[in-house]
Amino acid sequence: MTASFDLTDPAFVADPYPALAEARRQGPVLRHEGLGLWVTTTHAAANDVLRDRRLGRILRPRSPGDDAWTTFDWLHADSILDSEPPKHTRLRRLVAGAFARGHVTRLRPRVEEIAAGLLDEVERVLARDGRVDVIAGYAEPLPVLVICELLGAPTADWKVLRDWSQAIVRMYEVDPDDEAQRDAQRACDEFASYVEALAAERAQAPGDDLLTSLVQERDGGDRLSPRELVATVVLLLNAGHEASVNGFGNGLASLLVDTAQRDAVNAGLDHPVVVDRLVEEMLRHDSPLHLFERTATADVELHGVTVRAGEKVAALLGAANRDPAVFAEADRFVADRDPNPHLAFGAGIHFCLGAPLARMELQISTRALLERLGSLEVVEAVRRPTFVLRGYERLVVARAGRST
Fold first, then answer.
1. Which of 3, 17, 373, 388 could form a disulfide with 30 if both were Cys (CB 3.0 to 4.6 A apart)?
2. Helix ranges restricted to H, 205-313
3. Of the listed 253, 352, 358, 398, which one is catalytic?
4. What is the DSSP string of 356-400?
5. Catalytic residue flag (residue 239)
6. Topology of the domain covering 10-399
């Protein structure tokens, strides 16, 4: 069986779920000729793809011999996300060792301060205009400012860091155009140079931050190479920023559609479990990442089809997280859903190392916004024209009943 949905179709990008549900009815693993790979449509199949060690992250240089892609290539080849054992095992051990020094836990009060400061301006705009874009004013700056704090980077640099991140991740979409490719090449070169300079400063003048820990982290005689360290920092910002921004925007929009659930959540904000469950449903219902590729290193039998060695298979995480075999009323946003075994952070050896940080950011930022602004409604929502990384360009809200 083949999948027929077009990932570049604006109607599909706007709402892929009906087409993904139809594909699921055809089978758990389908051939997508347009993409030239296999795709999964169910939770079980996606989970198996993410966990099967014969299906690995095997990347090939974008254009061997083209110097313009050199930095892009090594930033990916030397990252945890795009490597396999034994290299992946070694990198994850070193990076996890740096994270284990308590940086994320210590950051909680500062995340609360950052959220409160951004909300001061959001509230001013809302009072002045009657509406405010919570993507531009809140969801976008918050995770980058948090990463700056985590790494000890100047907070004044957050906008250029965000721009570099957005330029790089556009390369993960289907068929990026020439301008997007040039922007990604330039962003990789500039971002890598920035991190190299910052790491050199930490080597000379250590601080109480994650970058210092990454510079100093050793396991016996082993340590991160200079390129591995830079690739780790770039990955941390790219993955952390996109998951937080899109998870927040998608989830908030889903919550505000149902006024009864919105009001129930607002009434229960004092109970941590209410916000914890809400955030998990925000990540599940309209996932920030929809497609994650693997390559077969041997023939793999996968839910009735054979993925041959060298062939690619993509776990469609958005389809997995709407699978009615796992989630009751799968297409409905259920703020207190429990259990909620979504795959938004992946599974297996590539399960997102930054998931605790992303969860903390989303819990703090969501609670703070709802506590400060009360009942809200969406008055304008503009989707990004992308499928792999799904989110909003603009999400304009107003206090319920007061939109203008």
1. 3
2. 210-216, 226-257, 259-267, 272-285
3. 352
4. HHHHHHHHHHHHHHHHHH-SEEEEEEEE-S-SSB--EEEEEEEET
5. yes
6. Cytochrome p450 (1.10.630)
